[in-house]
């Protein structure tokens, strides 16, 4: 009929977090109570796709508690942002420039352009196992457009190198 706030006490029993709520004492026979609870649980990143809560209803008048379980789906949410720039931001090749075949000097293969990409997690959850695939057009019409020289990472990431990376070993 009316709404009341429950008095609940969190505690730890046998390595399990328990929330104990007193529903009423004494309770009249045949009484029906609906309880709505909002729980905040942290550290769910590695819990899989669901978490199960075990519920028990104990009465001093009954020797065995009533048990139920509630399974709640877990969905981690994180917004990723990719930022990038090129150094220099604009490159103009001279019309008469020609690649020097067989040269191992970097300047004989073109103007150096460095591309820097940053992948940021804007949250709210942490992420792991993220894969970023970056496609770089390195040929155009059978001719070299960009000579891919090297690929490096910072921040504990793994990188798989492109098979056409530095084919002339410049």
What labels describe this entry?
170 residues; two-stranded antiparallel sheet; 2 domains; integrin; Integrin_alpha_Ig-like_2; single chain; 32% strand; mainly beta; ITA2B protein
Secondary structure tally, helices? 0
User: DSSP strand (E) fraction?
Assistant: 25-35%
Helix-strand pattern, N to C? Answer: EEEEEEEE
Give Rg in angstroms. 31 Å
Gross geometry: rod-shaped
- Helix/strand structural class: mainly beta
How many strand units?
A: 8
GO cellular component, one term: external side of plasma membrane
Organism: Formicarius rufipectus
Membrane topology: Single-pass type I membrane protein
Subcellular location: Membrane
């Amino acid at each position: 009929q009316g709404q009341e706030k429950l008095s609940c006490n969190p505690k730890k029993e046998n390595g399990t977090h328990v929330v104990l709520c007193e529903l009423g004492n004494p309770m009249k026979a045949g009484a029906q109570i609906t309880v709505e609870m909002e729980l905040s649980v942290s550290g769910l990143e590695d819990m899989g796709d669901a978490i199960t809560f075990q519920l028990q209803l104990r009465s001093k008048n009954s020797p065995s508690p009533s048990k139920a379980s509630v399974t709640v789906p877990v969905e981690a949410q994180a917004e990723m942002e990719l930022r990038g720039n090129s150094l220099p931001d604009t490159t103009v090749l001279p019309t008469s420039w020609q690649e020097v075949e067989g040269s191992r000097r970097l300047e004989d293969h073109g103007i150096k352009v460095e591309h820097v990409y940053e992948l940021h997690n804007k949250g709210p959850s942490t992420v792991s196992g993220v894969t970023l695939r970056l496609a770089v057009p390195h040929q155009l019409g059978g001719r070299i457009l960009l000579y891919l020289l090297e690929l490096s990472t910072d921040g504990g990431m793994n990188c798989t190198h492109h098979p056409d990376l530095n084919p002339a070993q410049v």
